[in-house]
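#struct-help
A.M.: can someone run this one for me? Single chain, 295 residues.
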Amino acid sequence: MRGRLTTAPAVIDPATTMGTVCLTASDLDLSQTFYERTLGLRASRPDDATVVLSAPGGPALVELHGDPSARPLERRATGLFHMAVLVPSRVELARSLWRLAVRRWPLDGASDHLVSEALYLSDPDGNGIEIYRDRPREQWPRSDDRLQMATLPLDLDNLLSELDAAGAPLDGEGVAVGTSVGHVHLQVADLRATEEFYAGVLGFEVTVRAYPRALFVSAGGYHHHLGLNTWHSAGSKPPPSGSVGLRDFEVVLPDGGALEQVVGRVRAAGLEGDSVDGGVRVHDPSGIAVVLRAR
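D.P.: on it. Structure tokens below:
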């Protein structure tokens, strides 16, 4: 990436959300089976090398591109820390947990973040995944008007009791209508340069600084649309070309006018962007590809 990052006074449109997360998979059939049966997403195959995964009636959440020769995941390279699938209720989070248990898929962790409750796992290539539900915004804790987040143990037995209380079927047909990509968490090389790009240029608001070597930013007062950390990747480079893992992810603006405002700030900062299917792809300071697109 070339260019000088500048601080812009404008703020990204509050209706901005996350869109499709695009990954390279070493075994496309194996990954499709995981995302379809273990996570409960619906799969379609527009061609032999691509799988598109979504919730019922919704847009693409994950797009997998198969490459049997792909290098293994480089865990200290910049790129994806995890992608986060947001389910619409605590009952749906409990159903997700049950689905994982039935498939005997291991958890990497389970946390109460005060604003949300989350399950953590990895896909067959080792890409990090979070499945979470939000608490109502009025319950999000604040101190001195600053949003508070934490990482506390999640009581899994209590979570599963939601299924009994609701009389909900244990496995069902998959994820619920309204399931979306709630946020994307990246591992980056330099936190200051990353903040200048995502906050100063794109216009996301910094919401949480309390975690060491991490930063959380959002649009419209959400707890975070992007997590950014240097826990394993400080000073690192992107993975070698042809590796499994993140290809790009979408930032979805509500309309063309909002998109043009962000693209204008990208150009004013001297950053190069490529046109892609009605959107613009730009690279952050860590070499991570971000696709800016209008809904």
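A.M.: thanks! The domain at 17-294 is CATH 3.10.180.10 (2,3-Dihydroxybiphenyl 1,2-Dioxygenase; domain 1).
D.P.: also worth noting: Residues 183 and 225 are 4 Å apart (CA to CA).
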